[in-house]
Design a protein that fits this description.
The protein is mainly α and 95 residues long. The protein has three helices and two strands.
């Protein structure tokens, strides 16, 4: 299937896009390249390739969640002078 200038202008009219003759030629080249690419995709042998199930997750494939408690607050806060109990303190920026 070859995209001609008339088809490009029809597509532009249907999509309510204003294009001039110079743009029409560039768009025609691009659309023809896209059509050729899709033809090449149609030539690919996909026998034996399973369909891609995006979004399906099996519980068996997921890792187990485990809770780990790290109480290293003292190590984190030992490098700052700006602290109050177990928290960092910062200057007030909103009034």
């Amino acid at each position: 299937m070859e995209i001609d200038t008339e088809t490009v202008l029809k597509i532009a009219r249907l999509s309510r896009i204003k294009i001039n003759e110079g743009e029409s030629a560039d768009i025609q080249k691009d659309l023809n390249r896209i059509v050729e690419f899709v033809k090449k995709l149609g030539e690919i042998d996909i026998d034996g390739v399973d369909e891609f199930n995006f979004g399906k997750t099996n519980i068996e494939d997921m890792r187990k969640d485990s809770v780990t408690i790290y109480d290293n607050t003292d190590d984190i806060l030992k490098n700052t002078k700006n602290k109050n109990q177990d928290f960092f303190t910062v200057p007030k920026i909103v009034e």
